[in-house]
Design brief:
- The chain has 248 residues and is α/β, with parallel strands linked by helices.
- Helix content is 27%, strand content 27%.
- The chain contains 6 helices and 11 strands.
- A hairpin with a 2-residue loop joins strand 8 and strand 9.
- The longest helix has 15 residues.
- Keywords: Electron transport, Transport.
Length: 248
């Protein structure tokens, strides 16, 4: 079985995001970029499935400019066998990303597609669900445990009420939650080996998919500064202050 894993280049989660002075976007000049953390978890799970003997190949795919090759090489260093870059310089929204991934899925014919449940830059949490609908295959989102058994997968999902366990037929789309696993540390020898692994490039226009955007972002703004707190002497004073501020 072949597993396809989607990864996205995002601002590293340790970096404090800054909005450009004109509000046109986020300042990425000189900012550390990394693989989306949820996508790292997705790749780690794919690699564990392969190491358990339930898959023969893991392919990572990302859409973006040539700068995203850095994240694809990171995926190869973690242990992926091949990488595919969908080259585009424009912004890609979830539906366009799902349509582009569908074209790659049709070419590669994987038995399983694993994605992070969301990207930490826009937090849309849409691409996996859209891909499953377009592909007309089952989906299991927010996975905290995945067990493969032949042509079926048993997935434990994190839902509002607790945990839900479902069984889906393969091929399927799975999106990963934080508690599924802990991604491995990439060692220097693995980084060197990754440079020799194949990285194929496909132009977005060759896929016959419209990039959009379907949504226009007017402006960006930082969150308002947090007001300084006050000290109160008793619970009664706390309740009174909360009522004065319209919070109770």
């Amino acid at each position: 079985m072949k597993i396809l894993v989607g990864i996205k280049r995002v601002v590293d989660y340790n970096v404090r995001v800054r909005v450009l002075p004109d509000g046109s976007g986020v300042d990425t000049d000189g900012v550390k970029m990394s693989v989306n953390p949820f996508d790292e978890i997705a790749l780690e799970e794919a690699l564990r499935i392969k190491e358990a003997g339930n898959a023969e190949e893991v392919v990572v795919v990302s859409a973006g400019g040539d700068e995203c090759q850095q994240q694809l090489r990171t995926g190869l260093a973690m242990g992926a066998d091949r990488a595919i870059q969908i080259r585009t310089d424009g912004p890609i929204q979830p539906l366009a990303a799902a349509r582009a991934l569908l074209k790659i899925v049709e070419r590669e014919e994987p038995g399983l597609v694993i994605l992070g449940k969301q990207a930490i830059d826009d937090d849309n949490n849409q691409t996996g669900q859209m891909l499953a609908a377009l592909w007309d295959r089952p989906q299991a989102t927010f996975a905290s445990k995945v067990v493969l058994d032949g042509d079926k997968a048993t997935v434990t999902r994190e839902v509002d009420a607790g945990l839900e366990t479902i069984e889906v037929d393969l091929p399927a789309v799975i999106t990963t939650d934080l508690r599924l696993n802990e991604p491995r540390f990439v060692k220097l020898p693995d980084i060197m080996k990754a440079k020799r692994k194949p990285l194929d490039t496909v132009e977005f226009g060759e896929l016959g998919v419209e990039t959009g955007p379907d949504l226009q972002i007017g402006s960006h703004s930082p969150p308002p500064q947090r007001q300084k707190g006050i000290m109160v002497d008793s619970a009664e004073a706390l309740v009174k202050e909360l009522k004065n501020r319209g919070l109770l």
